[in-house]
Amino acid sequence: MKKLFLTGISLLFALTLTFAQDANPEDKAREKVTKLTEKLTLTDEQQTSIYDIVLEHAKAKQALKADASQSPEALAEAKGRLQETTDAQIKEKLSDEQKTQYDRIVAERPKEETPAPAAPLTPPVEPAEPAQPMEPQQPIGE
What we know:
Structural class: mainly alpha
Number of strands: 0
Order of helices and strands: HHHHH
């Protein structure tokens, strides 16, 4: 009975994590604006305009992820360009003091690693000199 209960709880936890990763763009934008408001003390007008910018960014990023035809390198590059554009648009809405703080936030942001391109396999290199035949060994104890 205890195992069944623990299995059920584990399954519920796994399902919760699975669905939590697929938050809609509106929720992501709202969360980001809330964080920026706390860090930058945004005005109501700034919150509204930055929410629109962040929402468009979230929708565009979701569309990029859904496009399976792009290589991982192209996808990472497109996400980087999208982030740069979004950062520039957000900075336009900020005061000079807020821009300085936002630059710090951007600098502290973890960089997404671009996947390394697959390296071609090289054939094994033949040794320069032929291997010497081994001499037969005497069994121990004789």
